[in-house]
Specification:
- The longest helix has 24 residues.
- By secondary structure, the chain is an alpha+beta fold.
- The chain is built from 9 helices and 5 strands; from the N terminus they run H-H-H-H-H-H-H-E-E-H-E-H-E-E.
- The chain has a 5-stranded mixed sheet with strand order 2-1-3-4-5, with helices on both faces.
- It is elongated.
- Strand 4 and strand 5 form a beta hairpin.
């Protein structure tokens, strides 16, 4: 049965218009993005296949073109559209952080970091550089490592912070293992970086660990 044969209030487009986007499931939202299905499958069926293949939206967004194209009916055209939507979302969240006190909306910061580093299959160390009003000046991936560790050099972090004339910083790194809990090494690294930055009058506001859709805040857990 095609979506056009469904009861009107169950069709994703009509449901969104009546109840808002938040009322739709992941599959329904993805179906609206795909617009059409393939022979024998509606757009919702195709969306469900994708979520089953990649586990969730985060996994889908992290898929390579080759992996994405393994789903019948999907290819470069839809892949480039999806990547464009992802990039626009990242930029919109980044713009929000430049225009308002970054820590006044922890959810926006977490959403931004989820999109930036949450799905990466290797560890990266990411830094948000903030001005005196805690508005975002720049966000950079400074170091990249393996699945298990990243080499982070305090001197380079201090150098970059000074180059942006930052008043404070927020650290973030991902755990590809899927466990959003800090190791003892993570805690020691945070202390080392905070101490180095403090010597040049730059505050360390938080350190986030991102594991898929889960984000752990050092500050919220009293570790800053």
């Amino acid at each position: 049965m095609s979506i056009s044969d469904w009861p009107e209030n169950e069709r994703p487009r009509e449901k969104l218009l009546l109840q808002g986007a938040a009322a739709l499931s992941d599959a329904e939202l993805l179906a609206l993005f795909f617009r059409t299905g393939v022979p024998g499958k509606s757009a919702v069926d195709l969306a469900r296949d994708c979520l089953l293949r990649f586990g969730n939206l985060t996994g889908l967004f992290a898929a390579t073109l080759t992996q994405f194209s393994e789903i019948k009916g999907l290819g470069p055209a839809k892949y480039t559209q999806l990547q464009a939507v992802m990039e626009m979302t990242k930029r919109a969240l980044g713009e929000e952080l430049t225009q308002r006190h970054a820590l006044s909306s922890p959810k926006s910061v977490k959403d931004y970091l989820r999109l930036q580093i949450g799905a990466k299959p290797y560890e990266v160390f990411f830094v948000l550089f903030l001005d005196a009003q805690n508005h975002l000046i720049a966000a950079q991936e400074l170091f990249r490592g393996t699945l298990t560790q990243t080499s982070v050099y305090p001197r380079e972090v201090v150098k970059q912070a000074l180059s942006f004339n930052a008043a404070s910083v927020v650290f973030a790194h991902n755990h590809p293992s899927g466990v959003a809990e800090p190791s003892r090494a993570d805690e020691l690294l945070t202390q080392s970086l905070a101490t180095a930055l403090n010597l040049v009058d730059i505050r360390t506001l938080d350190h986030f660990i991102v594991a898929g859709n889960v984000v752990y805040s050092f500050s919220e857990h009293g570790k800053m």
